[in-house]
Design goal:
The complex is a heterodimer of chains A (about 400) and B (about 350). Chain A has twelve helices and two strands. Chain A is mostly helical and about 400 residues long. In chain B, helix 1 packs across helix 3 and helix 9 packs across helix 11. Classes of the chains: A mainly alpha (about 400), B alpha/beta (about 350).
Amino acid sequence: MSSLPPTQAVLQQVRAVRRRSNGHLLQQAAARWLLVTALAAALVLVAALRGGRLVFGSVLLLGAGAAIAVTVLVTRQVRARWLRARGAAARIDRMRELRGRLASVVELEGRAGGGFFELLAEQNVDALPRWRPEDVVPRLVSAPTLAAACAAVAALALVIVFAPWLRPPPARVLVGDRPMDFVAGDESRTGADRLLVAPGTEHQPPAGAPGSGRMRSETEAEDSTLATLQEWLQDTLGADEHWQTDDGEAPPSGSRQDTTGSVRQDRDPKARPVADARAANGGREVPGADGPATPRPGSGDDTTPDHGGAAPGAGSDTDPTLYGDPHDDLTAHGDRFELAIAARVRTRPGSAEARWTDTPGADASRHPALASGQRREQAGHRMTVPPTFAPIVRRLFAHAEPAPGASP
Amino acid sequence: MSVETAAAATGAIRDFQDTFTAVRREMARVIVGHDEVIDTILVGLFAGGHVLIEGVPGTGKTLIVRSLAEALALQFSRIQFTVDLMPADITGTRVVTETPGGGRTFVFVPGPIFTHVLLADEINRATPKTQSALLEAMAEQQVTVAGATHPLDAPFFVLATLNPIEMEGTYQLPEAQLDRFLFKVLLQYPSQEELERILAVTTGADTPAVRPVLDVATAPARVEELRRLVRSVLVAPHIERYVATLVRMTQPATDGDAEVRRWVAYGASPRGGQALLLGAKVHALLDGRPHVAHEDVDRVVRAAFRHRLVLTFAAETEGIEAATVVERVLASAARHGR
């Protein structure tokens, strides 16, 4: 420092203080912003995972408001306290009670000379230790602010990590074998069997809820948006974990690979109420429901050649191409879809609630009546299966392993 | 006195401080109390202005001025202003004089204004015409008699007194003439302790006398040198902004304090700003600094603005004085971060 001219040494230290002050200001602002936004995000995620639509909406609104407010406040604070080059010397002068010495020498640099200015510069050099950067500006953000910000970030991280444990109760996979004359088509109308796989949960408004039709439609639109956002958050945070069957089966491994993919983001919310209504109806069709129809590629224009030999999938294993290659289409943009099948699905005898079980082998000697009424076996129609549902569907339709020693 | 180097500047500042302190000490030998008034008068002297003193009779106005002149070893004159005082009684006049050859010619006879320190006692008792003769000399540092201009010797320092009582038969100084005084100081009655000391000092057998601080032969030049030194003090732009802000805040036409606007009819002029800066420079030197700081300005703002504010009728009815307005202006400036 001694090699520098007096005024240059002073100006250099002013710049150092300015850099340090502005850096510290940014640290403080970032810590405060992080504290509020991380806390708000954690609360929103908890509400998305555990709360209902109303709670989630309220927390989302409050969280967004808090984030916007803290952003505005922090920005204004930074702008007000930002140490600009023009006013840096004056502010340091006031802070360290230099009695205008520093501000004067900086402002008069290059404009004044003579003995008085030299004396002023010397006095400033002598006073340099009084306002060293490390004394004027503390190095780090204050401990309480930093601790609070770290705690908020940790809370957010904990919410993300423990999201699978915070998930809502597992949804049910409803499987039914009742004929559902749903798909418009000549063949299916005669009694196509369908599966309704609906792992979602529908929150229906109370029956007597007030509101006109228009208001209701607006509310439904908002609910739909909120639901989409909430479910997207659940999916992003590991919502696939709760896509279980009633048997508590683990989620399909393949479904984890697409938790943030566009498939789930492009859901068509309008398709959900019908399917959910069916889900609530135990898989039976809901009168008046007009949901999206799943096309049945095999219903009439199936171009798959019939070679007259064994049907694909014959044997102990499920035909891997029974439903074609897993792929996505518009009909599968939801957390449920309808699987139309042509093969009859049997249920466990005596089961009031239709629960699927492996199709037992037809035994004409034990159940002649059943055997006589058995449909002629035919190949199932091909249809598209969303990738995330493919493991479930394959598991549902897997052939049971033949018991040891059982006759073929 | 050259201040081309830092060492020279340090020496010059110390010399100024020593001189000021010595004069102050000598005056204190005969004047009891009135410390602030004496300081303000000395600041006005070294700032190159003139000072208006307002005080009741018998409070030592004349003694202060005489002591100042004696301490500085400067010429001193006193004019007692009365209603029949004529301008020529102040400036001097031309008289017919017989030349050695027997002829007659007009010769200018300087009046009492041709001095270094002039006491204009009870200036408000003279007519405006006579007052203006003095005030012109104060501003121009010269007098013009019969078309001939006669410069006044430097330094020229006027101390005028005003008697706040016995206002009958007086002529209030117009604002334009008040503005020519750098400062106005108020001489209050002495306190109990000061009064006891005054009685003890002035009624004894040995009355104290003021010893000259400066050499008689070089005193005027020394005072002028110190005045030039004062003007060399550095003033940064932020101080100039502060002074300009203070001046403008006294003006009702600007967006200043609402109360100030309601109380003040006419605010301080640019001369008020000059008075602030010059007085602040003296205070900076007294503080050993080569530059002016905010507190230097604050120290002189009361004396510099007191006589420059013309208050409204509303202020008078509310009993608001100029000092109150100045305090309000200072507070407002402090709120705005100077």
